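User: I'm putting together notes for a lab meeting next week and I want to include a structural view of one of the chains we've been expressing. I don't have a solved structure, so I'd like a prediction I can at least talk through. The sequence is below, exactly as it appears in our construct file.
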Amino acid sequence: MPILLYAHGSDWCSICETLKEDVWDQESDVVGVVFVSIDVLETPTDESNAANKGFDTNKVRTFPSIVALTPSGDIMGRRAGETLPLDAEGMQSSLRAFSAEVLKRHALLKMADDAKQNGDINKEVSAFHAMIDQDLDVPKGVLERLQEIDPNDASGIRRRTAFQPFHPFVAKATK
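Assistant: Thanks for the context. Below is the predicted structure for the 175-residue chain, given as structure tokens.
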């Protein structure tokens, strides 16, 4: 199952803790993902370091943040502090929408893998294109695999995606 990490700071971020208690700890309608809480303390302790072992807290720039990971630990996407609503109702809505995208990505990754195993290039390309259209990170190796199986890139999706710094602008402008 995909993993959703909630990065917060219990000893310095009061809004993080309010949202953790009112939304994260109460969420029961989202199924199919594993919820994990990472407490990034201002002054880390041995106990907090042990609890956060394996997660690089330096990769979180704003708090609170939600980070989606594949079961193997690759980042699927993030919702960072400045993009998250700071009220419980808005946060709950945002969390559910993000979870839905993560679950869809998980299914698309499986579909692409199954298509590759079965030699169904069209289905694999379709899965990759659907992933690229999501508001999540482009999975590692997708552009290389698309170059390999669809070198002509008739849709132009791979070329637009490879143009990362302006990808959202280019995608909107060329649709």
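A couple of points you could mention at the meeting. Strands lie at 3-8, 34-39, 65-69, 75-79. Residues 88-118 form the longest helix (31 residues).

User: Perfect, that's what I needed.
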